[in-house]
Amino acid sequence: MGLFDSIKKKFSSSEGETRSSLSRKVQESPQDGQARQNLGLYMLRHGEIVEGNDQLARAAILYEKGGFITKAIAVLRQMIKNDPGNIDFHRWLIRLLGLHGLTADALGALQKIATGGIRFASDEQRLDFYREVSQNLPDSPLPFLLIADVYLHQRKTFEAVSEMAKAVPLVVSAAMEKEFAGRMNALLALTAEHPELFESCGFLWVAAGRREEGLTCLKQAADHARSAGETDRGAEADQIISALLEEEKAAAIAGAISFGEAVRRLTEPEPPAPPPAKEEGKARPEEEGEDASILQSAVEKLRAKVKEEIGESDPEARYNLGIAYKEMGLLDEAVEEFRLSRSRPALFLGASCLLAETFAEKGDIDTALQTLNEVLASDGISPEESIDVRYQMAVLLSRIGKEEEAKEIFLSLYESSPDYRDLQDRVRKFQR
Fold first, then answer.
1. In which band, very low, low, confident or very high, does the pLDDT at 215 lie, cut at 50, 70 and 90?
2. Of residues 1, 58, 67, the one with CA closest to residue 32
3. Is residue 286 included in any domain, yes or no?
4. Is position 72 within any domain?
5. Does a structural domain hold residue 182?
6. Residue 118, helix vs strand vs coil
């Protein structure tokens, strides 16, 4: 029996039901999900697609609130059948499937979207969709791999590497080694143009448990450093390659994504564990859950309001919203807003610098540096602005252990602008 026949049968038992009588039931019991579902199906039968989907959406909300997730999922599937291009419906369905433990169904729905199931208006809209889905599928690397696909298509290699680094801890448990390897091969195909990718690819392979492939890439990265005259960096690379051959040292640098980070993990002692919180000052788990729920609700309401009243048409408003998110500690949300606000030339510099700061706060220094490099490569940046950006880059390089590269920038800035910020103190340290 087809879907239409099922609907027809459903209503054949109550021939006296009309739009008016069904509407009256909804008015009498507005919190009755079944009543709204019946009205929505009736409307769909009579060609009222928009109105019918609206009633079905309200029914799905009521089902979800009441804990009837299976019913909500069934209603959402009907809504998508009638409006297959609605991004919000697909996002909602994947969230509910993940919530109900139907991970395979959720991933299947996501994969269908990725292969053309939805026509996105822009790459940014596609990225936003995948980022939100990643929060509903925390144990799957697929959303991160799909984000990496977008960046690879855009030739944004540093961003692609960043997403691959998020995916790699989940790859083995999700049995997605083949999918991960496919993206890795796409990255390696770009090494002729971007030889610095050998370093990132090497560490990603190692993190995925493919040590031989990783060591091959890291040796190529070391050779490239020496051929470029970076002897110190080449020696640093050799040190890490040797360490990866020893189980204990390899464990110490697990998760590193660059030679500098690996050296720091290898040489710096592990910080002591923080003392246990005092019982009287510790919040109860239920209180923490309530706070998180309240915050999430507030953020969702703010997002909805921005989407309704601002959309993507007002980059300045998105820029200010990004600052607010950053101050609230909502770093992922801040990243999205700063990305959007960069579209206005007058905001490009400020939004880019704040975007780099936010990435750095998230611990993603490589993407922060890439963002600043994009600023330096852009047109219209003044010499004074260039000084600010290069100083920020040097600080970040120093933070991840690339002291020689940082020193070179600081000294260069000192030659042209000796009174800038704390350059005198920094240079004085180099001369000791």
1. very high
2. 58
3. no
4. yes
5. no
6. coil
Expressed as residue numbers, the domain containing 50 is 1-83
What does the block give as tokens for 306? 């921005």
Query: From CA 23, how far away is CA 34, in angstroms rounded?
Result: 12
Backbone dihedral angles phi then psi of residue 254, each to the nearest 5 degrees: -60, 135
CA 264/CA 268 separation, integer angstroms? 6
Is residue 369 within 8 A of residue 391, CB to CB? The reply is: no
In this model, does residue 143 exceed pLDDT 90?
yes
pLDDT at 327 over 60: yes
Rounded CA separation 348/377 (Å) = 12
Give every CB contact of residue 254 below 8 A, 6+ residues apart in sequence: 207
**Residue 305 banded pLDDT, cuts 50, 70, 90:** low
- Domain presence at residue 411: no
* pLDDT over 80 (residue 221): yes
CB contact at 8 A, 63 and 71? yes
How far apart CA 28 and CA 428 sit, in angstroms, is: 79
Amino acid code (one letter) for 121? A
| pLDDT at residue 141 is higher than 90 | yes
Give the C-alpha separation, 263 to 260, whole Å: 5
- Report the C-alpha gap between 108 and 114 in whole angstroms: 10
The set of residues, in sequence order, having a beta carbon less than 8 Å from that of 249 and lying 6+ positions away, is: 243, 266
Distance CA 93, CA 375 (A): 39
How many folded domains does the chain comprise?
Answer: 1
In the chain, the largest separation of any two C-alpha atoms, in whole Å, equals 94
Other C-beta atoms lying within 10 Å of the C-beta of residue 6: 10
Asked if 420 and 387 touch (Cβ cutoff 8 Å), the reply is yes
CA distance 345 to 217: 38
Tokens of 54: 């609206």
CB 164 within 8 A of CB 144: yes
pLDDT of 3 over the 80 cut: no
pLDDT at 282 over 50: no
pTM: 0.57
The CATH number of whichever domain residue 36 belongs to comes to 1.25.40
Contact at 8 Å (CB) between 20 and 26? no
From 422, 16, 339, select the one nearest 150 (Cα to Cα).
339
Q: Which amino acid is at 296?
A: Q
* pLDDT of amino acid 296: 54
The residue written with tokens 């008015």 in the block is: 27
